[in-house]
Every structure is written in C-alpha cells, then in structure tokens.
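Troubleshooting entry. The earlier prediction with adenosine-5'-diphosphate gave an output that would not parse, so I re-checked the input for stray whitespace and re-submitted. Clean input:
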Amino acid sequence: MLSIKNLTASINGTPVLKGIDLEIKAGEIHAIMGPNGSGKSTLGKVLVGHPAYEVTGGEVLFEGRNLFELEPDARARAGIFMGFQHPIEVPGVSNAAFLRLAYNKKAEAEGRDELDPLEFDDFIHEKIKLVAMREEFLDRSLNEGFSGGEKKRNEILQMAVLEPKLAILDELDSGLDIDALRVLGDAVNKLQRADRALLIITHFPRILETIQPQFVHVLSGGRILKSAGKELATELEDRGYDWVLEEAAAGG
Ligand code: ADP
Ligand code: MG
Ligand code: MG
C-alpha cells in the first residue's frame, strides 16, 4: 500500500528526515516511536502533504502512485487520513456539518451517493457510539473548546466517517486519561480491517498495549534506527530509547 524509499525532507531549510525507508502493506499496523524531536510528526505531515515541509529526496508510492504528484486534498480523497497532534479549531462550523461535508466530498469522489442531513444524522449516530461521544458534541463548533481528550475522540470519529485506507494517528494518547485511551484504542481496533493500514505515531508505548502493532520502528534524528515486532515496544517501555541510539552508534 505504502512504499517509502530514502525519503528526505526539510523544514525552513533544516533537514529533518534523513533517509526513511518503510513498507506498509494493507492489513498491517505499524508503530513509529522515538524521542521528542526525532521527526515522527514530520514524517506523518510529509505523507499528507503539509505545506510547511519540503521533500528534498526519495520516493513515496501509495498504491503504486507517486504520492508527491497528488495535492494534499487528492491524497485525502485517495484514502490517506491523518489525525493531527494539535487538531485545528474552526469556530462557526458545527462538528456535524464538517463531518457531513467531508463524508460527501469523499462519496462524490468515489461515485457513491451523498447523504442529506437527515440520512447523515442516522449514519453519524451509529458512529458516535463507537467513540463513546455524547450527542451534544455534534452541534458544537469544530473542536472549539474541546478538551484534549474530546479532540482525540473527534479525530477517531473522523476516521470512522471517512473510512481511510491508510490512517496515520499522531500521539493519539496525548492528553487522554487511561479510560479514554482504552475506549479510543478499542475503537481503532474495531476500525482496523484487512484492506486498511495503520501508522501509529507515539512517544509512549502505553497505547500499543491496546492497539497492537505487528511492526515497531524507532525513529531518531530523522532516521529509522531499529525495526522489530511488537516486543520492541515492551522493551522500550522497560528500557527507554537510549540503548537503541547507542546500539545504532556502535553498529552503524
Ligand atoms: P517529533 O514528532 O518526533 O517529536 P517533529 O517531527 O515534530 O518531532 O520535529 C522534528 C524536528 O523538526 C525537531 O527538531 C523540530 O524542532 C523541527 N521542526 C518541526 N516543525 C518545525 C517548524 N515548523 N519549524 C522549525 N522546526 C520544526
Ligand atoms: Mg514531539
Ligand atoms: Mg510529534
């Protein structure tokens, strides 16, 4: 589904990604872990086409297409979704209106029927159960005044509505208490399917107890230093990141 080869990217002329190689197949869950400032969020933002980041080299294919030939909204329509670490607030646009707009744009692009407000109402009421969101949140302005946890709930609701092929979740665990983390982790697990892939970006291993990745990659200094199975997340929980950096420095 996603094939990243020797990807390099800069922000304001400073290299942040220094040669990333990563292959993600449909049905797989990958975790990108690493110390703060290592480039984890940058990788996600480069994949969705955030304008602040400049791709300086390498290649990314999404379902065989050159990702960098697609504008950000075309990438979203092609099925790439990213929940942001700091989701935006949009005063004056209700959450429900925003979700319906997003749903209908995608439906139109895929030649499916759009939903009118009443049809969407039925659809969205099924979806909010998944993330245990109270109905009143649908009528609130998009993310305005939402707590950190409510924004994260909303992010997974957006994922449930948009049914992406590749979902990139950046620091889903930030600002969540343990119960909310479990609810959202379970929701993400329910949304996982054989034709969908997940890229979980996280500094802390805890979320990976609920959403269990098959592959764990340690990113540091813009490079993937180590890749292994989910047991690596447990090891990082016990030992932290320093030993991976030392191992990489010693062995190259
Ligand atoms: P992580 O998500 O792993 O904590 P980031 O991808 O957010 O790391 O950041 C990687 C590096 O790029 C850091 O050194 C950070 O300071 C720098 N960086 C990220 N965004 C910007 C920006 N908008 N302007 C300048 N530097 C940035
Ligand atoms: Mg960070
Ligand atoms: Mg980050």
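This one parsed fine. The chain has a mean pLDDT of 92.
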